[in-house]
Write a structure and sequence with these properties.
The complex is a heterodimer of chains A (567) and B (328).
Chain A: H1 2-11, E1 14-18, E2 22-27, H2 32-41, E3 45-54, E4 57-65, E5 72-79, E6 87-90, H3 99-109, E7 112-115, H4 145-148, H5 161-164, H6 191-195, E8 204-209, E9 221-227, E10 230-237, H7 245-251, H8 254-264, H9 269-284, H10 290-318, H11 324-343, E11 352-353, E12 356-357, H12 365-388, H13 391-397, H14 405-411, H15 416-420, H16 427-430, H17 451-475, E13 498-506, E14 509-517, E15 525-529, H18 531-537, H19 539-542, H20 548-557, H21 562-566
Parallel strand pairs in A: 2-5, 6-7
Antiparallel strand pairs in A: 1-2, 3-4, 4-5, 8-9, 9-10, 11-12, 13-14, 14-15
Helix pairs in contact in A: 7-8, 8-9, 9-10, 10-11, 10-17, 10-20, 11-12, 12-17
Chain B: H1 2-7, H2 11-45, H3 61-71, H4 82-93, H5 95-100, H6 117-125, H7 127-138, H8 142-173, H9 178-183, H10 193-196, H11 198-211, H12 223-226, H13 236-261, H14 273-291, H15 299-327
Helix pairs in contact in B: 2-3, 2-13, 3-13, 4-7, 4-13, 7-8, 8-11, 8-15, 11-13, 13-14
The chains are: A alpha+beta (567), B mainly alpha (328).
């Protein structure tokens, strides 16, 4: 079977339509750069790179979507691991710069190499752990790719050549923006500073911003080369709070993995909850009653508001205004009290279940939400008067950290970042899930692409979330069904074979949880696509030539949650 | 008594020593009070009670803070220049007493009767930037260095409009003696210099915030950018002295401001030291109010504000003052 597939792929890339996943293109690894070039020219955005290890070798799956036409393409490339060696793929990081980090991450976790990668240094793992390859399985534990998915459909599938430009000429790769140098073994500092050598110009300062810095909100580290206070080069160093959630996803049943979602992104825990349950429900064909969907939307949107409120306060703290965060927390406190009535917890919510939600909210929840939402518009108006219109704030955010659509596409930026750059790309509208298509809300868009645009988009989003919540409250008394579908499986049920990907819009952007199951007790692979990871990856490019204070402003405007980046 | 008379201690010296002792007490007490006040003001602006645990309404919080700071181990960072590192807080704090000497708190209530009181204050206020520079350089820390670089650029720039604004008042009063400047103002607000020199007052106020490195001009310590700027490495009382010096300087700039523009100890109905203290604290509260309201400006913005707006404005104001003096 494998030979047949390979033979078939050698002729041309093959296009297979999967009912739930859109267009799937299967190709040889060597054809990846050409395909990527064509897809990039079409305006595609590289969402994620999922690498999975099978008995046949490593499969790299590139998820691309077009934020304008909402077209989706998934590229599958299978490379054999020759005699225990590494599977080899060509790099696409010179085409989609966002792939740089995805590829480095894959090289950390799997025995794969991406030839031509400019800086193949460890990204999430500590440098001394780089040979561990934590997601690689022993040979006898690897499943065949044919048991997991319908890979044999490739044979006899129509050619995808017209779609991805198989026979097109590959354009010359643009110059690579290499941040890390070869490395000087005797230079002072740790692994990364040794690889981050000064450019040799006089009067330059190499500065480690973080991992203990007040404005990196956690343990992000950015190595900077400064000329005075101007940033010449900057490169984020990740992995200080890396907890290997993807491995945890493989070690336990999907239901047992649900609480992890609140730890991945503690600020929008329910968004991640939603992505995982969507993926599992897709895979196992579980239905969700209307009432449960409404409860999901209600809690997710409340959680989105609380996440944005915290971002708002913390961002102004970055800009040196101490007071707004207290006002933000005041409102956030109310939301946390309300969500406690619904979910039982205050921060790391785990409310969603396969087939519904865990239980009905406690009494007083709906009244509390109504009161909060009724007063919230006035609060937003006050925030606008007190903070948004302030001239010092305006001067600190206007024209700072400008990112155009091209940057967003190349790095895979989503969420308020891409909406601040002029595209109304919101998963809730692009590929409606749950009942979002039945609600009336607009997607705030700004075209400036600066920090102010992202700021205003988030402020408007809170108002839109409040609108959705109002509509949910009206619908919920007459909603059909209970909080959980009567035929919902037990939460620790065994997943059927297959691949499913739950894509949702979380507070920070496009969140995707990809569940790959070989029918075993635990998922074969659990891939978490974090929006912050991609949003941050553009920082090196965006911050070049800006002032240190502007870099802080830019970092804050990306709304980073470091545990979500490191996972 | 006899012995004292035999020693023939000059009266001015006794006065100076007594004044310095009184000022030390004044600065210490008011520093503590301001720390408490700042935290309470911040609390109430942020819709929380502020310190509430140590003593009734947390009035002993400042004492607890001071004890904590005193009790901390003094650590010198690796590679720091010992002399510069530990000299900086002292250099920052010591001149503060000198700054208070020529200020007239009430009728005849001053430490040093000096003709050039204003000049003395302006000269010794400049020492603070030396202290920040020493701290930043001696710490062997890049953040501290950046903070010191900012401090120098900012303080030097803002001293110019400050001087020009003060000069307008001095030209009007025809003296640099603080007591005489007060004497030339009346008891009612429209007789104060602020009514005659509103532009100079505005410039002086902005500069006073910038010179004391208070938000929104707190760039040398900007903790969201430079962790803590020039005092990043300071433990315990090293930081404590900087902290106290900052508050003492706030008192100085508001005292000088009150003297120059708000009629000093003169006030409606009954003149006296209470009016002076009232004006100082009103000024300080406005500075706190500003700190807890606005975001921090960017470094190029703060310098642009000074060089492009305040200095030309101050020059024009000075010119207008001279013209008016010549004509009237």
């Amino acid at each position: 079977m494998r030979e047949q597939v390979l033979e078939s792929l050698a002729g041309a890339p093959r296009l297979v339509e999967w009912p739930c996943g859109g267009r799937q293109v299967f190709l040889e690894p060597s054809a990846l750069p050409a395909a990527m070039c064509r897809l990039k020219a079409d305006g595609m955005l590289l969402e994620d790179v999922t690498v999975t290890e099978y008995a046949e070798g490593c499969e790299a799956v590139y998820h691309l979507s077009n934020p304008q036409t909402l077209d989706r393409v998934t590229l599958h490339a299978l490379a054999a691991t020759n005699g225990g060696g590494a599977a080899v793929f060509p790099t696409v990081s010179h085409i989609f710069q966002g792939a740089d980090w995805h590829e480095r991450e894959a090289m950390d976790f799997f025995p794969v190499t991406f030839t031509g990668h400019p800086t193949p240094l460890p990204l999430l793992l500590a440098p001394e752990m780089v040979d561990e390859k934590p997601l690689s399985r022993p040979v006898d534990k690897r499943s065949s790719i044919f048991t997991v998915m319908d890979y044999s459909a490739v044979v006899g599938a129509p050619s995808a050549a017209p779609l991805i430009g198989w026979e097109d000429e590959i354009p010359a790769p643009p110059p690579v923006h290499a941040i890390f140098s070869e490395g000087l073994p005797d230079a002072p500092g740790d692994f990364y500073t040794r690889h981050f050598q000064a450019t040799g110009e006089p009067d330059r300062l190499i500065l480690n911003m973080g991992p203990q810095h007040p404005s990196t909100h956690g343990v992000l580290r950015v190595i900077l080369e400064l000329d005075g206070e101007y940033i010449v080069r900057a490169e984020p160093v990740l992995g200080y709070i890396h907890r290997m959630h993807e491995l945890m996803g493989q070690n336990r049943k999907a239901g047992q993995f649900l609480p992890n979602m609140g730890r991945v992104d503690y600020l929008h825990a329910l968004g991640w909850n939603h992505a995982l349950v969507l993926a599992v429900e897709q895979l196992a064909g579980i239905e969700v009653p209307e009432r449960a969907e409404l409860l999901r939307i209600l809690t997710v949107e409340l959680n989105r508001i609380s996440s944005h409120l915290l971002w708002w306060g913390a961002y102004l703290l970055d800009l040196g205004a101490f007071t707004p965060i207290m006002y933000g927390f005041d409102d956030r406190e109310t939301i946390m009290d309300l969500l406690q009535l619904a979910t039982g917890s205050r921060l790391t919510y785990c409310y969603h279940r396969f087939g519904g939600v865990s239980h009905e909210p406690m009494p007083g929840f709906y009244e509390g939400v109504k009161d909060f939402i009724d007063g919230f518009d006035a609060r937003l108006a006050m925030y606008k008067d007190l903070v948004t219109e302030n001239i010092i704030l305006r001067k600190r955010v206007e024209g700072v950290g400008e990112m155009d659509l091209d940057v967003c596409r190349r790095y895979g930026c989503t969420g308020p970042v891409i909406r601040g750059s002029g595209l109304a790309f919101d998963v809730r509208r692009a590929w409606p899930y749950s009942l979002y298509s039945e609600f009336d809300f607009t997607i705030p868009v700004r075209t400036e692409g600066d920090a102010l645009a992202r700021y205003l988009v988030r402020m408007d989003e809170m108002a839109e979330s409040a609108r959705i919540i109002k509509q949910v409250l009206e619908r919920i008394p007459g909603a059909a069904g209970g909080h959980l579908h009567p035929k919902a499986p037990k939460q620790d049920f065994t997943l059927p074979k297959g691949v499913a990907r739950g894509v949702v819009e979380a507070a920070r952007g496009l969140v995707a949880v990809e569940v790959i199951s070989d029918g075993g007790k635990t998922p074969y692979r659990m891939r978490l696509r974090s929006p912050c990871f991609s949003n941050l990856s553009c920082f090196a490019e965006v911050s070049r030539g800006t002032l240190l204070a502007d870099a802080v402003s830019t970092l804050g405007s990306l709304d980073l949650v470091i545990p979500e980046i490191d996972r | 008594m006899m012995a004292l008379a035999d020693l023939q201690i000059p009266g001015a010296l006794v006065r100076l020593v007594v004044a310095l002792a009184a000022l030390a007490a004044f600065v210490g007490v008011n520093g503590m009070l301001l720390v408490y006040l700042e935290r309470k003001v911040a609390g109430h602006i942020q819709r929380r009670p502020g310190p509430f645990e140590v003593g009734p309404h947390g009035i002993l919080q400042a004492v607890a803070d001071a004890l904590k700071l005193v009790g901390k181990q003094l650590v010198t960072p690796n590679g720091a220049d010992w002399l510069l590192f530990w000299g900086a807080p002292v250099v920052s704090f010591m001149p503060v007493f000198l700054l208070f000497l020529p200020i007239e708190f009430g009728p005849g209530l001053y430490g040093l009767d000096v003709n050039l009181g204003l000049l003395l204050i302006l000269a010794f206020a400049g020492l603070n930037v030396v202290a920040l520079c020493m701290a930043g350089w001696g710490s062997n820390n890049k953040w501290a260095l950046l903070g010191a670089a900012r401090a120098v650029a900012q303080s030097v720039a803002y001293e110019i409009p400050l001087l020009l604004a003060v000069l307008a008042i001095a030209a009007m009063a025809g003296t640099l003696h603080l007591g005489e400047i007060v004497a030339k103002q009346g008891s009612w607000p429209w007789q104060w210099n602020v009514a005659l020199q509103p532009v100079a007052f505005f410039i002086y106020f902005v500069c006073s915030v910038a010179e004391t490195n208070r938000a929104p001009f707190d760039l040398p310590e900007a903790e969201s950018e430079l962790t803590a700027g020039f005092h990043t490495e300071y433990p315990g009382m090293g930081f404590g002295l900087f902290f106290l010096a900052e508050y003492a300087e706030m008192i100085v700039v508001s005292a000088v401001g009150a003297t120059l523009f708000l009629g000093g100890w003169k006030g409606p109905l009954v003149d006296g030291v209470w009016w002076f203290l009232f004006k100082i604290y009103a000024w300080l509260l406005v500075m706190m109010w500003i700190r807890w309201t606005y975001p921090r400006v960017r470094f190029d913005q703060i310098l642009n504000l000074c060089w492009k707006w305040l200095i030309p404005l101050a020059l024009l104001n000075l010119l207008a003052t001279f013209v008016a003096l010549a004509v009237v």
